[in-house]
Amino acid sequence: MTEIPEEQQAAALRAVADAGARRARLLAEAEQILTNEIKPAAVRAARLGAGRDRIRELGRIGPTMLYRWLEEAGLPVRQKRRSSGTGRRQKPG
What we know:
The protein is mostly helical. It is 66% helix and 0% strand. Helix 1 runs antiparallel to helix 2. It is elongated.
């Protein structure tokens, strides 16, 4: 007996739904690891003098996230440089 197109579509949609649900669970787990493990470890490492680039590399996190965490923890964070509009420094002249 041959499957009808609606049955094939239903099977494909079930596969999409199953994969989507699994992905959602993994993303939620990753968020928990980020919040409960990486964040406190990164802040502690910074307090102990570890290099911020190394913390970001090992934690696989971006600078914006790390510096936000450090600010929240009361650690000094250098302010972003303001752009001059050209993207280059001008030579004195």
